[in-house]
Amino acid sequence: MQQYGVLVVDDSSFMRKSISLVIEKDPQFSIVGIARDGYEAIEKVQLLKPDIVTMDVEMPKMDGITALKKIMEINPVPVVMLSNHTEEGAEITIRALEQGAVDFFLKSEVIGHDVEDKVMEDFLCKLKMIAENAKVPRPEVKDAEDKGVVSIISEIKSKPQLVDLVIIGTSTGGPAALQSILPYFPEDTRVPILVLQHMPPGFTKSLAERFNTFCNLHVKEAEDGDVLEGGNIYIAPAGLQTLLYKRSDGNISLIIEDMHNEKILYKPSINVTLESAAPIYKERLLTVILTGMGNDGLIGCRSVKKYNGHVIVEAEESCIVYGMPKAVFDEGLADIQVTLSNVFEKIMLYI
């Protein structure tokens, strides 16, 4: 049985002990060390060579983001952030994901007397999948005037517009992957872009606000009743489902609602959104499935192809976790599979 060594980083002795106790409930995990701040974390990552690191977001002396940057430079290893469910915690967590953290978990969902066994099991299962499968992300942040991007845009602008909507679905590793795509859409992009990123409630608003600071297009968390308009990027809100609806005036608007269905694991669910969009846009819909665990998007992509829409999936070489794209590719639903560095160019061929 494969064993995985974990380094637990947190400034609170209570948290270090509590997190360690949860992790060691799984016999495949062993705590190889603890660190009280970012400085210790950097030192012990090099010394102990853990398979995975859990990192507190906010710490004295050196915070989790600064430590994360250093670890990625010196000794890259999968790092998951443990965050507080606050507005400030959400903002910092989004920045950590941009800097290379593989994923994050809410402390309130991992420890505490009222945490359900199933929630704890899900945490340990995800942690194990990350330890087994995750590649250390290499955030690719190009300059806004990157010659390659400018060349791609100028070459493609003269081509006919083939689709009227782009839907991008992603999960683990998504925020870093989206950095290689969203900031490079030009201001005159003619189609709306809808992004579905698996996250706990409260975090997609911070994700949208963060991207809005450096994207050419306006980025916002989607709201019920929003009319889809070109030149905008809509981030589907976590904790709810996002559906599309064609109004009597021909415009397409969003319906944001809480759907109670035990068979639907994710909120937002890529499947739910795609199944509502495919019959509306038909061959004028482009779907992009990026890195992520599980197979959300598979059912939705079946619907997209049924209506002659288009599907791009990220290739295994660049995925943090090759789960969602693999499910779509293996079923023969992808029109093309490319590494992350080529996804933007392929999208531009359609819009």
UniProtKB/TrEMBL annotation:
Pfam families given in the database record: CheB_methylest, Response_reg
Active-site residues annotated for this sequence: 171, 198, 296
GO terms assigned for molecular function: phosphorelay response regulator activity; protein-glutamate methylesterase activity; protein-glutamine glutaminase activity
Keyword Cytoplasm: yes
Domain CheB-type methylesterase: 165-351
Subcellular location: Cytoplasm
Keyword set, alphabetical order: Chemotaxis, Cytoplasm, Hydrolase, Phosphoprotein
Catalytic activity: [protein]-L-glutamate 5-O-methyl ester + H2O = L-glutamyl-[protein] + methanol + H(+); L-glutaminyl-[protein] + H2O = L-glutamyl-[protein] + NH4(+)
Chief location category: cytoplasm
GO BP: any one term: chemotaxis
Family: Belongs to the CheB family.
HAMAP family: CheB_chemtxs
UniProt domain comment: Contains a C-terminal catalytic domain, and an N-terminal region which modulates catalytic activity.
Reported function: May play the central regulatory role in sporulation. It may be an element of the effector pathway responsible for the activation of sporulation genes in response to nutritional stress. Spo0A may act in concert with spo0H (a sigma factor) to control the expression of some genes that are critical to the sporulation process.
Protein name listed in UniProt: Protein-glutamate methylesterase/protein-glutamine glutaminase
Gene of this entry: cheB
